[in-house]
Amino acid sequence: MVKLRHSRLQAKKWSTLTLVLSMLFMLTIVLLMLLAMGIFYIPIGDDDSPPNDLTSFRRRAFEKRSSIAEEKGEQWTEIVAWEPRAFVYHNFLSKAECEYLIDLAKPYMVKSTVVDSKTGQSKDSRVRTSSGTFLKRGQDRIIRGIEKRIADFTFIPMGEYLKF
């Protein structure tokens, strides 16, 4: 009869060592994934706030300035609420861009209407005092620049926001 050289005790030690090493390997993978996604960060500089701090989330928009766009100052995003999602994009448009949009839309402005609850048709209301218009998507270079900036700030590709 042949006697085995390895006992059961050595097999248990080997499986425990394998278990510990595999757990360390999985922990390393999870940590690397958290670092890659930006959920976990390693502070490197003297910056007071981490890059993903939700209470003081700031994002600089890098873009080419068009000839009509004047210096807008620092552009940053303020989080108003997460449910429902609401943000304020500070210094999003320059004064010249605002004036351009107003001048472009002014001739086409129409009084806003309300829906008649009985017929389902639009009707005028003396309570509603607003007016508005729609601009064509990609109408000119300035509009395309603003649309690109919207896509950059909201992380929604151009054209996709029409689905919402």
From TrEMBL:
<keyword id="KW-0472">Membrane</keyword>
<protein>
    <recommendedName>
        <fullName>Prolyl 4-hydroxylase alpha subunit domain-containing protein</fullName>
    </recommendedName>
</protein>
<dbReference type="GO" id="GO:0046872">
    <property type="term" value="F:metal ion binding"/>
</dbReference>
<feature type="transmembrane region" description="Helical">
    <location>
        <begin position="20"/>
        <end position="42"/>
    </location>
</feature>
<dbReference type="GO" id="GO:0005789">
    <property type="term" value="C:endoplasmic reticulum membrane"/>
</dbReference>
<keyword id="KW-0479">Metal-binding</keyword>
<keyword id="KW-1133">Transmembrane helix</keyword>
<keyword id="KW-0812">Transmembrane</keyword>
<dbReference type="InterPro" id="IPR045054">
    <property type="entry name" value="P4HA-like"/>
</dbReference>
<keyword id="KW-0408">Iron</keyword>
